[in-house]
Amino acid sequence: xxxxxxxxxxxxxxxxxxxxxxxxxxxxxxxxxxxxxxxxxxxxxxxxxxxxxxxxxxxxxxxxxxxxxxxxxxxxxxxxxxxxxxxxxxxxxxxxxxxxxxxxxxxxxxxxxxxxxxxxxxxxxxxxxxxxxxxxxxxxxxxxxxxxxxxxxxxxxxxxxxxxxxxxxxxxxxxxxxxxxxxxxxxxxxxxxxxxxxxxxxxxxxxxxxxxxxxxxxxxxxxxxxxxxxxxxxxxxxxxxxxxxxxxxxxxxxxxxxxxxxxxxxxxxxxxxxxxxxxxxxxxxxxxxxxxxxxxxxxxxxxxxxxxxxxxxxxxxxxxxxxxxxxxxxxxxxxxxxxxxxxxxxxxxxxxxxxxxxxxxxxxxx
Length: 366
Description:
Elements: H1 3-15, E1 23-27, H2 31-43, E2 48-52, H3 58-68, E3 75-79, H4 83-88, E4 92-93, H5 97-100, H6 106-111, E5 113-114, E6 117-118, E7 121-127, E8 129-133, H7 144-154, E9 157-158, H8 163-172, H9 186-197, H10 212-221, E10 227-230, H11 232-235, E11 244-247, E12 253-262, H12 268-278, H13 281-291, H14 298-302, H15 306-315, E13 319-320, H16 331-343, H17 348-363
């Protein structure tokens, strides 16, 4: 190349602005969701450097990163139950007014706030409901007793040994998932006993810990399940979603996934841009079509598939878990105690007393 042409080419390159660095995003997507996220962001020409944090350890890992403050992401996807603790620790920045003003559904808007103030952008709404074959009648009512009666008639119910699944049984006895004396009451003991009695009868013996989700899918695909207590996160994996119907479960918990920007974010404006992209009507519909996730924007919901709209309706009567920093920590005592009762290694009375002792420590934590 002649020297004048080389000089001109170098000058042209120097005049072009450097591409902005990729948005640093910490998320809890599973492998298939991550694949779709990466493809969708590439289509939208948004450079994102994403990192996965396992959901089971997500709250702890995220808190450690943000408290350290040295390697903060620009945006994070979190479970709604983690929001109060992050807000209480002053680790999050509020979203810009333009995002707050979007057409959020009431359930989504409530999840994104703490004490009436916005601290996040809602990405999905989820919770528990009852799934069944569309050719089969729904239980007579949303009550637990009617669900179990309908399942006994077909000798088939799917429910998981997990404290989150126990919540409707506790609430039916007037017990909320929060520290206090109620968890040691006769109502809680009765709830634990009724739940555990399902297994080995209308519900098969539970599979090995960690294999619950694939085993539930196998049973559904093999036609072994008449009624299935589950949430949107499972329906996206079904190969026959067109034959699925859903209905409400009384006292079911409702939650969701949120997008937040930490106060230590190196590029907070980029983090909120990513949050806006992920909650755009187009992207919400992409994820709803792929995974049956429930959108948080009214416009996306209005254009969603019938099953997704039915999920939203079924979750309408569900109730969020208490908005407290300790709520996610309650499962550390609840889950193993429930498993012990189901396995016959502890009585409901023993389990309830043990849970109460563990939760008492949470009431006195600094």
